[in-house]
Amino acid sequence: MEPITALKAELVPLGNQQTIRAMVTTEHAQGAVTIPAGISVGAAEAKLIDPAQAVQTIHEVIGPVLVGKDCLDQRSIDQALMDLDGTADRSHLGVNALLPVSLAVARAAAAALSRELYEQIAELANTEPRLPETIVVALEGGKHAPSSGLTIQEFSLVGSPATAAQIIDALDAQLRQMGHPSTTGGEGGLVLSGQLTNQAALQLLLDAAIKSGTSQPQLALDVAASHGVIPEAEVRQLVGQFPIAIIEDPLEQENLEQWQAWTKEFGTSRLIAADDLTVGNPRMIKDAVQQGVANCLVVKLNQTATLSELLDLVDLVRVGNWKIVVSHRGLETDDAFITDLAVGIGAEYLKAGSLRRPERKAKYDRLAAIRIHLQQGTTTGSTVAPQAPSQPPSNPMTSPPDGDSRTSSEEPSVADSPVGQ
Ligand code: PGA
Ligand code: ZN
Q1: How far, in Å, from the CA of 376 to the mean position of ligand 1?
Q2: How many domains does the chain contain in total?
Q3: 408 or 342: whose pLDDT is higher?
Q4: DSSP single-letter state for residue 382
Q5: Residue 292: phi, psi to the nearest 5?
Q6: pLDDT at position 180, please?
Q7: Would you give the end-to-end CA distance of the chain in angstroms?
Q8: CA-to-CA distance for 235 and 223, rounded, in angstroms?
Q9: What pTM did the predictor assign?
Q10: d(CA 301, CA 14)
Q11: Judgement on whether residues 184 and 83 belong to the same structural domain of the protein
Q12: 143 an active-site residue?
């Protein structure tokens, strides 16, 4: 028993908006979490309320109920949060009031038990920690970079952040040479100034990867088809032409039959990942698994209001043998909670932008620290054996990553960089 003694919240700047940081204090520990925000928010996502209102709700509505409760009992705390809200879409108290509290409870519990956060999450999830492969955003488009002319939201490299950084630098130099100087986008990917097609951008990215020494690059796309106009025929052509291992939201969310056909056609060798399709909604996810409309779930903060609900979603998709991508949001903070989440739930992939932005780098630095903890066995209670470096999997469906995100260029990744949590 580790009773909660105080719950505090404050507003924190986030781009040109504000977000919420919640801090849970117990008799022996503290845990604080700051939540991110989306740009291409799914229409059916859980509802946010005004941030100042969320802070007030935490102090006046949630605090009085949680103080005195056992911080180690995540399930009953999350149940209390859901009961307090009482709506399916979390529109009464708001996901931005509920979620930072739920996540801060997990961080405080880990501190009280002298554990790493990922260990605490793994215990709650009843799974073994695992180091995910990383998906690094190289080019941004769609709603994240409307000026770029690219209609696909994210063009990413599957592999280590350090290798991806070299490739992004090479691509940057190439674009300048071509008279298309780029800027750095919000997620750390390049934003084109000239008008290139999706196809031309992918070709340049592939060329940059090969020239930088990655002989068999693997690419990932977040098409975010519900947020733009991108014909199915174009996506299909790109998938046929380029080594795209993971395709997120290739089709509009209404188009379930097409999703099913895509998963039948491409799903044995590629991941068809549902984000806007399922928006963290348990009923939609259950249906999606039953109907086989995808084979991979994108897990994003703010799509669920509590950690326990999120863990239940993981159980739902594992029944269907789906893979999991834990993903950053369009607007991020320095908080690396999603890295511990990815390791703790045993996700196959972590997508967190590129090293060009500090709040994205924080996620990869945390992953490097966790790798060291696991390899050295320095974490309290860790049961995970050190894992050997490997090549990235050639087929994401049949060869799940084995826990090392290095690519064939064998660089030490960011494992030596300092770590902050
Ligand atoms: P977001 O999108 O802007 O809603 O966070 C990120 C994503 O779809 O991967
Ligand atoms: Zn997405």
Answers
A1: 34
A2: 2
A3: 342
A4: -
A5: 60, 45
A6: 87
A7: 25
A8: 8
A9: 0.91
A10: 15
A11: no
A12: no
